[in-house]
Every structure is written in structure tokens, then in C-alpha cells.
Design brief:
Blueprint lengths: L3 E3 L3 E5 L6 E6 L3 H18 L4 H16 L2 H12 L3 H26 L3 E3 L9 E9 L2 E5 L7 H12 L3 E4 L6 H13 L7 E3 L4 H9 L4 E5 L2 H12 L5 E4 L4 E5 L5 H13 L9 E7 H16 L19 H17 L2 E4 L21 E4 L16 E7 L2 H9 L3 E2 L1 E5 L3 H10 L4 E4 L16 E2 L2 E2 L4 H6 L2 E9 L14 H12 L6 H5 L2 H18 L1
Parallel strand pairs: 6-7, 6-9, 7-8, 9-10, 11-12, 11-17, 12-15, 14-15, 17-18
Antiparallel strand pairs: 1-2, 2-3, 4-5, 5-21, 10-20, 13-14, 16-19
Helix pairs in contact: 1-7, 2-4, 3-4, 3-6, 4-5, 9-10, 15-17
């Protein structure tokens, strides 16, 4: 079964939990995407001149639109992704509402002009400052797993920076993408400042090739590489968030009950379809059995079913393609000698639910894993939790870093100094201590990874700076005097330049003062030449 039906001119969105068709959207052509980019460029000419107060008013108005339709939006997200309505509220809507108010209220302060200390150059009447200019058109290509929070959060930040936005939602979740456009329209945003273009991979490629001023992409490494190749032709910069294989390290002095609860949530929320899901759990030998028992107990207590059921914790996966990867990885674990402790198959009790019932995969706990097993190296993106055992801190760090990915990781310990020490040695963009996964929901903190988990950052001040270009403004406050290093050169100029290298460039005020007589002679020399030419 597929959760999307692609036609030449339209796409039918399908509920992965039930197989029911939800709605139809256009499958935009290359020309339609290009036309949207051109309209966005025109809209940018006016939007970039708006004040921060005006931008804030629009973003805060969009928040009110969302608050007025919380249940409807949560239901739509649930139906397009399969995730429980509760998760749509807790992991998508609430975090992006928080991000919107934070960026609306804080962007002006973060982007106010910054003076640069020039040291001894300031004694020569020079000053410098950085002003932050918007980029222009920002193209956002989000993933299907968080189709509301990712593009809406990035759009709000881009708007507050003075950019216009085009969102190309995933073909698996196009209606959620259109809902974002509807929200901004109801908020009164001027035409073409935010546009939604729907379609498959070809529409995304067309958006990149149309050369917006920046691309924000969330998805697989393979697609990220293609986007970089297309973007390189016109030197379009891109921020890439490309997934992970996130490690959770549990030491023997950790709160085991808390760690077990955290592991179950971080592995199985959104059916494991989060780039920051825990996909590798490393536990110290002395507490491995106890932690594993608690994890299995808590996993088996989870209710699986259609996401609109308020008691359901784990729902359907997004597509047949994604569930096939999970099946392949679980089978590879079996063949490699790992043990499936619970789960390990599609949920047969839900198979007759509807035509979509075959996309429910049971939350799966695996023991006896090690990093030599293929699924410990490849991203699974499904409800599996493989557990491996380590002896000491050095081994735990080595195992966690043995990956091409480095998005997030977590360290669980009762020793805060150890937690900090280990966290700083892990090769990941975010490392949590006694916490896991949720920091994407904190708009104030940067989001992005090391290694093949991507390039650049979203969220936080670091993410905001990805959406502007710094412009350096330099001023000479003594415009009536010639610069001593100007042409024409002379023997006195050469002597002065020697002192510039040995005295002025030392940064020492005392040593610089020794060259003042030469500087004055050189200045008089240039003034005399100027007067003589007159």
C-alpha cells in the first residue's frame, strides 16, 4: 500500500493508518514552480522594507489563527502522518507556537547592528559595524515526519529576517503544507510573501534549480547530496538536516527508571520516525539487565492503533517504503545473532483495520546488538530500539562516535561532571545530559548536526543568522586627511610601513606611539603633494 497517489497533474494524500484518501492537491510543473519563485522575488522588494514591528504583527497573528483551530490542525497532521493526535499537539503545534512568539519578539534585538571593536584603528578615526540584510527568497523543503513544525518554524524565522518564503511540502503530507499557507493568508500576510508549491521530488528539484537565495532542506543524505549538486550550479547556499543514528549512553549510576521511560519515548514516539530518535542504546554492563527489563515492560504496555484514538501511543508508519526498511533491519539483526525481545513484526491484530492496517509495526526491543551489525550503522527511522553493552566510559564514547551521523545524543548519569565530560567528547550537534530528543522543540536552541547529519543550523540565533547576510559598514571619521598608505610611495613611506608592521600591528599603544612622528611626516608629505597639484 502507498500513502500517496501521484498523478501527472495532481496528488492524492492518503491516511497511512486507514488507507482513506484525505484530499487532492496539484502536482506543480517546473514552470509553475519557477513562476512562484519569480512572484516571491517581486514580493521581497516590498517585504524587506517592512519594520520588525510589522513582521512581528503578522507572525503573532498567524499564531492566533493556529490557536483558533488547534484540534482541526492536529487532526489533519495525524491523518496525513499517522501519528497520534496527542503527538501532533505536543511535538509539532506547541513547539512551533513557542518558536513563533520567541522569534517575533526577539528577532529585532538579535539582528540589531553590531559595532566592531577596531583596536588601534579607532585612534585613526575609523569605526566599523555589521548590519544584517535579508537574503531574498528562501526555499523550504521539509520532511514528511514533522510536516507542520519544521516548515512553519523555518518560515517564521525567515519572515522575521525580512525574507519571502516558498515551501515545497513532502508529497506524503501536502495538505499540511497547504494549511500553513492558509494560516498566513488568514493572518493577513501580503500576497506571495509565503507560497506553497505542492508536488513530488521533481517539484523540489525545480525549486532548487530556480535558484532561490537559500535552500532549507530536511531529509535523507542521498537527497541532500542531490540538492547540493543542483544548488552548486548557481551557487545557491543550503542548510541541510539529514537525519541521524542517535546514541543514548546509560551509565551504572544513572536513574534507571527515568532512563527506561526516556528510552521508550525517544525510540517509539512518532513510530520512531524522528531524525533524533534513539536508534542505538549503550548501557553499562552492571545495569544492562535491569534497564532492559524495564524497557521491555514499558514497551509492551504501549497501545498501538489509529492516531485519532486518544489512548493510542504508537500509530502507523508513513509508508510501505519506510516499513520495509524496518523489516530489513530487524531481519538483519536476527541473522547477525541479536535477540528480538518484543515486537519484531507488523501488528497482525491491526491488519484487518482497513486497507491501511498493514503499516503498523510493533515497537521492537533488541538485545545483543553491536556496532558491527549493519542496522547499527544505517538509519532505521522506525520503532526499533537495539541495545548494546559497554564496560567503561572510554568504550561508551568510542561506540557512540562510531557512526557517519552526528545529530543528537544523550548521556545518562548521576555524576554531572562525568555527563559534561562525556557530552563534550561525543561528535554530535546536540548532546543532552539526563534528557533526550526534545530540544528541536526549543526554538531558542540551535538545531543541526555533525558529519553526515548535515550542514548549517536552524533554530536559535545561529539558525537566524543562516537567514541573513552580514554587511560590513566602515566609516572614516576624519575624511579631510589622506591615508598614510596611499600612493605615491616614497622613502619616508617605506620607513613608516616598516613601523606599521613592527609597532602598530603589535597592538601595543606604547609601541605605536613611537611611530607617530613618521606618521605625521608622511601625512604632511601627502598634503603637500595634494596642495602642489592644485
Amino acid at each position: 500500500m502507498t500513502t500517496v497517489k501521484m498523478q501527472e497533474d495532481h496528488i492524492i494524500s492518503v491516511d497511512p493508518a486507514t488507507g482513506d484518501a484525505i484530499g487532492t492537491v496539484p502536482n506543480c510543473s517546473d514552470d509553475e514552480v519557477l513562476a512562484a519563485v519569480e512572484r516571491s522575488r517581486v514580493a521581497f522588494l516590498k517585504w524587506k522594507r517592512t519594520s520588525f514591528a510589522e513582521r512581528k504583527a503578522f507572525v503573532m497573528s498567524a499564531r492566533e489563527v493556529i490557536l483558533g483551530d488547534l484540534d482541526g490542525i492536529a487532526s489533519l497532521i495525524s491523518r496525513e502522518t499517522g501519528k497520534p493526535v496527542a503527538e501532533a499537539l505536543a511535538m509539532e503545534i506547541a513547539p512551533v507556537l513557542d518558536l513563533m512568539q520567541w522569534i517575533a519578539r526577539g528577532a529585532e534585538k538579535m539582528l540589531r547592528p553590531q559595532r566592531i571593536g577596531l583596536g588601534l584603528y579607532s585612534l585613526m578615526g575609523r569605526s566599523s559595524m555589521i548590519v544584517y540584510q535579508p537574503l531574498g527568497v528562501v526555499g523550504i523543503i521539509p520532511a514528511w515526519n514533522y510536516p507542520f513544525s519544521i516548515p512553519l518554524g523555518e518560515a517564521a524565522m525567515a519572515l522575521m529576517a525580512g525574507n519571502t518564503v516558498i515551501i515545497k511540502p513532502s508529497e506524503l503530507t501536502p495538505l499540511t503544507g497547504l494549511k500553513i499557507g492558509e494560516i498566513f493568508e488568514k493572518a493577513g500576510l501580503p500576497p506571495d510573501v509565503v507560497q506553497i508549491v505542492t508536488g513530488g521530488g521533481l517539484a523540489g528539484s525545480a525549486l532548487v534549480k530556480a535558484a532561490p537565495d537559500k535552500i532549507m532542506f530536511t531529509g535523507s543524505v542521498a537527497t541532500g547530496k542531490k540538492i547540493l549538486a543542483d544548488a552548486a550550479e548557481k551557487m545557491t547556499p543550503a542548510v541541510l538536516e539529514l537525519g541521524g543514528k542517535d546514541a543514548m549512553i546509560v551509565f551504572d549510576n544513572a536513574n534507571i527508571e527515568l532512563a527506561a521511560e526516556a528510552a521508550v519515548w525517544a525510540a517509539f514516539a512518532n513510530s520512531g520516525q524522528s531524525c533524533c530518535s534513539v536508534e542505538r542504546l549503550y548501557v553499562q554492563k552492571g545495569v544492562a539487565e535491569k534497564l532492559t527489563e524495564k524497557i521491555i515492560e514499558k514497551t509492551e504496555a504501549l497501545k498501538q492503533g489509529v492516531g485519532t484514538d486518544p489512548d493510542v501511543s504508537v500509530s502507523a508508519m508513513s509508508s510501505e517504503k519506510q516499513i520495509a526498511i524496518v523489516e530489513d533491519h530487524v531481519d538483519a539483526f536476527r541473522k547477525a545473532g541479536a535477540k528480538i525481545m518484543t515486537g519484531g513484526q507488523r501488528n497482525g491484530s491491526l491488519a484487518g483495520l482497513s486497507s491501511g492496517g498493514d503499516l503498523f509495526y510493533e515497537p521492537t526491543v533488541i538485545t545483543g546488538a553491536n556496532n558491527k551489525m549493519r542496522p547499527m550503522q544505517e538509519e532505521t527511522f522506525g520503532p526499533t530500539l537495539p541495545i548494546a553493552v559497554f564496560d567503561n566510559e572510554e568504550e561508551a564514547v568510542a561506540m557512540a562516535n562510531d557512526s557517519e551521523f552526528g545529530l543528537t545524543a544523550s548521556v545518562w548519569t548521576g555524576d554531572r561532571s562525568r555527563g559534561r565530560r562525556v557530552a563534550e567528547r561525543i561528535e554530535a550537534g546536540t548532546v543532552c545530559i539526563n534528557e533526550v530528543m526534545y530540544t528541536h522543540g526549543i526554538g531558542r536552541t540551535p538545531w543541526g548536526g555533525f558529519k553526515n547529519s548535515g550542514r548549517g543550523r536552524t533554530h536559535g540565533k545561529e539558525g537566524l543568522m543562516e537567514l541573513v547576510q552580514p554587511q560590513h559598514i566602515h566609516t572614516n571619521r576624519l575624511p579631510f586627511l589622506p591615508n598614510a598608505w596611499w600612493l605615491p610611495y616614497s622613502s619616508s613611506a617605506g620607513s613608516l610601513f616598516h613601523d606599521l608592521a613592527t609597532k602598530f600591528a603589535s597592538g601595543s599603544l606604547l609601541r605605536t606611539s613611537l611611530m607617530l612622528p613618521k606618521l605625521m611626516r608622511r601625512t604632511r608629505e601627502l598634503l603637500k603633494l595634494r596642495k602642489g597639484k592644485k
